[in-house]
């Protein structure tokens, strides 16, 4: 096929505006699936996606379509709909020349519509503004066209209208994809170069990669190498995804294909695959992943460590957005510190861990990464630069060496009915937000933007926003980088000894509240001991909150008469086993469950 007849595009939209339904209709019209299967959602493959009704992984489908009696190859890249997965959106977008910007004709522009629109703009993609659900009696296409005009300066005459559910207008959309989106601008005669936009693991064939070919051609059996490695490999698997695999012998620049190099071939997202003679002059890198939330994952029982390790490894290969580092906790044993794009991503990852691998895991409370500037950084071993990223508060460098603290911020976009603006502003200011200028969407809806600390957003911001606006406001955020902040390290002490795993990094305005609630919770959860237990929250040597648990004498055998030796032995054995699961701090025995409860969110 001629490159001029390839179109690479993506459908982007706010969640529930109909991406998956539209993708199904496109698959139907191009003959991939049989019509009538109304809610098939072929591209939403994972069980979690079906259950939660969200798309997690970007999946590609290559479609044949003929227009003016000429055959076209349309590569549809389905993108995830949630803010957490925006990096998957970004990756798919690097292989596209255009996007279908889908907007629910009933709901109108939502926060995520704004985010995906600006992403498409930043990447110089052609935007096909498309209203969906025009079949709904309450749909108001004219009103939404005016919103598109006032927020994005899109001319109403450029807006397409479809009903993905009924199939209305979908042929016209396909024509617009062909006539308005340009073909990929690539050189088919140059050396072969491709970048990897996704990977997954196949039991028998090893790593399979979704690759966008930037230049040259790729043949079955050809020799290739990774940009990051000198070793040569042979192309063992080459296929189009329709979305089921269709083996091919050759692919060329502009195409999105599945490539496998066998069980020892490897492959990771963001890497570049080259023909051995290609010198990689061109920049084909995929934007780096930014982890917004970190949490510890530990096996429920250390005997399951190997099993959990295998599961995490396999899953993280498929979900390249996670970062995994070995971690250990005196209370929870050996585990991992895992970085996620957001809380939903964390939820989905652990749910997949349970569903796909049947592994049980303990998850610690999520925290955002912090950055600190350390004085004399060069003499502190292990830290290479002056700035240290801290993904686990336990690993914060000695505070006496810290010159400045930074925390991650985001630009939050909220689209809300005008009557809730007061409540939304109050929420954002309470979450330490700084307002940016606001914009009217129309006479009923307003777009507010705030610079917010990520730590205030990841917890329950979205839920709170929904509840104060009766579900009518939508929210999305974009990375705004690290900025200086008044942070301190808060330690929890039991009878004067620091409990490492309860150390946290807190903004000064939240300090008193956190100190009081954490010590109070611990007082409730730690069982009485033979000695009095003092629980303290301490910052820089100063005690901010204190609770005391009174001493209590406990002897499990006291109630037994001396004669029953077997019963006595059994009880002592039980007690000894119980002790094994204890974390001991300053001679205070704390059951592992207490730690699981305090550390879990
Ligand atoms: P996604 O989150 O963007 O992938 O949205 P889905 O494709 O899952 O659609 C969300 C909901 O809207 C589903 O219940 C669909 O059946 C429904 N839907 C999608 N397109 C249309 C449409 O054109 N008309 C109507 N009435 N409902 C639609
Ligand atoms: Mg979907």
UniProtKB/TrEMBL annotation:
Principal location class: mitochondrion
Q: Where in the cell is it found?
A: Mitochondrion inner membrane
Which Gene Ontology molecular function entries are recorded, alphabetically? GTP binding; GTPase activity; mitochondrial ribosome binding
Known catalysed reaction(s)? GTP + H2O = GDP + phosphate + H(+)
Q: Where is GTP bound in this sequence?
A: 13-20, 78-82, 132-135
Per its UniProt entry, what is the enzyme's top EC class, as one word?
hydrolase
Q: Which domain of life is it from?
A: Eukaryota
- What membrane topology does this protein have? Peripheral membrane protein
Q: Which residues form the Tr-type G domain?
A: 4-185
- GO (cellular component) term, any one: mitochondrial matrix
> One GO BP annotation here?
translation
Reported EC number(s) for this entry are 3.6.5.n1
UniProt keyword annotations, A-Z = GTP-binding, Hydrolase, Membrane, Mitochondrion, Mitochondrion inner membrane, Nucleotide-binding, Protein biosynthesis
Per the record, the similarity remark reads: Belongs to the GTP-binding elongation factor family. LepA subfamily.
Say what the protein does.
Promotes mitochondrial protein synthesis. May act as a fidelity factor of the translation reaction, by catalyzing a one-codon backward translocation of tRNAs on improperly translocated ribosomes. Binds to mitochondrial ribosomes in a GTP-dependent manner.
> What protein name applies here?
Translation factor GUF1 homolog, mitochondrial
- Per the UniProt entry, what species is this protein from, by scientific name? Pieris macdunnoughi
Q: Show the taxonomic lineage.
A: Eukaryota, Metazoa, Ecdysozoa, Arthropoda, Hexapoda
């Amino acid at each position: 096929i001629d490159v001029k007849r390839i179109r690479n595009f993506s459908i982007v939209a706010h969640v529930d505006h109909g991406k998956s339904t539209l993708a199904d209709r496109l698959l139907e019209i191009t003959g991939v699936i049989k019509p009538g299967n109304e809610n098939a959602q072929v591209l939403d493959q994972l069980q979690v996606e079906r259950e939660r009704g969200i798309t997690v992984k970007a999946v590609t489908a290559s479609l044949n379509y003929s227009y003016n009696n000429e055959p076209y190859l349309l590569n549809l890249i389905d993108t995830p709909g949630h803010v957490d997965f925006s990096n998957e959106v970004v990756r798919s977008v690097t292989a596209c020349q255009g996007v279908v910007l889908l907007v629910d004709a009933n709901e109108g522009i939502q926060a995520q519509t704004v985010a995906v629109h600006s992403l498409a703009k930043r990447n110089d993609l052609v935007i096909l503004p498309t209203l969906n659900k025009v079949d709904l009696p309450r749909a108001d296409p004219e009103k939404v066209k005016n919103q598109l005009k006032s927020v994005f300066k899109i001319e109403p005459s450029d807006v397409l209208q479809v009903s993905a559910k009924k199939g209305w207008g979908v042929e016209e959309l396909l024509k617009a994809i062909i006539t308005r989106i340009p073909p990929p601008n690539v050189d088919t005669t140059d050396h072969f170069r491709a970048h990897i936009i996704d990977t997954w693991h196949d039991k028998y064939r090893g790593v399979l990669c979704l690759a966008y070919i930037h230049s040259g051609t790729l043949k079955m059996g050809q020799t290739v190498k990774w940009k990051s490695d000198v070793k040569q490999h042979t192309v063992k698997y080459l296929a189009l995804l329709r979305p089921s695999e269709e083996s091919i012998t050759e692919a060329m620049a502009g195409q999105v294909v599945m490539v496998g190099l066998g069980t020892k071939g490897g492959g990771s997202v963001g890497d570049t695959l080259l023909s051995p003679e290609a010198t990689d002059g061109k920049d084909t890198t995929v934007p780096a992943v930014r982890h917004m939330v970190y949490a510890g994952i530990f096996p429920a029982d250390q005997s399951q460590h190997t099993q959990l390790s295998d599961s995490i490894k396999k899953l993280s290969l498929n979900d390249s957005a996670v970062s995994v580092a070995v971690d250990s906790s005196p209370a929870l044993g050996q585990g991992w510190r895992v970085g996620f794009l957001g809380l939903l991503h964390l939820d989905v990852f652990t749910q997949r861990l349970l569903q796909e691998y049947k592994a049980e895991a303990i998850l610690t409370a999520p925290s955002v990464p912090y950055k600190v500037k350390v004085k004399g950084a060069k003499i502190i071993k292990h830290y290479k630069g002056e700035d240290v990223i801290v993904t686990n508060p336990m690993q914060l460098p000695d505070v006496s060496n810290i010159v400045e603290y930074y925390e991650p911020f985001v630009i939050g976009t909220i689209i809300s009915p005008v009557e809730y603006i007061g409540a939304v502003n109050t929420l954002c200011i309470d979450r330490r937000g700084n307002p940016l200028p606001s914009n009217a969407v129309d006479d009923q809806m307003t777009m507010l933007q705030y610079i917010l600390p990520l730590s205030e957003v990841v917890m329950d911001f979205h839920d709170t926003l929904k509840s104060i606006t009766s579900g009518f406001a939508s929210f999305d955020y974009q990375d705004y980088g690290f900025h200086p902040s008044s942070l301190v390290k808060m330690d929890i002490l039991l009878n004067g000894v620091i409990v490492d795993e309860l150390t946290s990094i807190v903004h000064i305005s939240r300090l008193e509240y956190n100190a009081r609630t954490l010590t109070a919770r611990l007082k409730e959860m730690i069982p009485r001991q033979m000695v009095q237990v003092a629980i303290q929250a301490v910052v820089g040597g100063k005690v901010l909150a204190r609770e005391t648990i009174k001493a209590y004498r406990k002897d499990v055998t006291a109630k037994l008469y001396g004669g029953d030796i077997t019963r006595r032995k059994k009880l002592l054995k039980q007690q000894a086993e119980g002790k094994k699961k204890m974390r001991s701090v300053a001679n205070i025995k704390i059951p592992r469950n207490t730690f699981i409860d305090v550390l879990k969110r």
